[in-house]
Design a protein that fits this description.
With about 130 residues, the chain is mainly beta. It contains 1 helix and 11 strands, in the order βββββββββαββ.
Length: about 130
Amino acid sequence: VQLQASGGGSAQTGGSLRLSCVASGFTLTYYNVGWFRQAPGKEREAVSAITTTEGVTYYADSVKGRFTVSRDNTKTTVYLQMNSLEPEDTAVYFCAANYGLGSAEFRRLLTATEYDYWGQGTLVTVSS
C-alpha cells in the first residue's frame, strides 16, 4: 500500500505547478484525498481535500482561489493545480488518503490525523 506524490519542482512567484498523487496496492477511487504541506521549521498544514465520488473540495484559506484539487477516478489519480505561486508556498507537499469520512466533514478532512495512508512528499520551491 503506497501513495506517490510527484510534480514538485521550482517556480517563480506567479508561476504554476501541478502535483499528482497516485496509489499502488489499493484503489484510490474509494478514498478521500488530502494535500498537506510542511515548510522548513513549521508544522504540517492542510492545503486541500477532495472527497470520493462526489468530488467535494475544500481548501485552506491561504490557497483559496489559487489552488485547485481534482481527481480522475478512471486513472485513480488526484491532482493539485497550483497557480499564482508565492514564496510562502515553498514546502514539501504530501498527499494522503482517508477512508470513511463523509463529504460534509470538512474540518476532519483538513486534519492530518484523520488520514490513513501517506505519500513521501514532493518539494515545491517558489522563488521571488
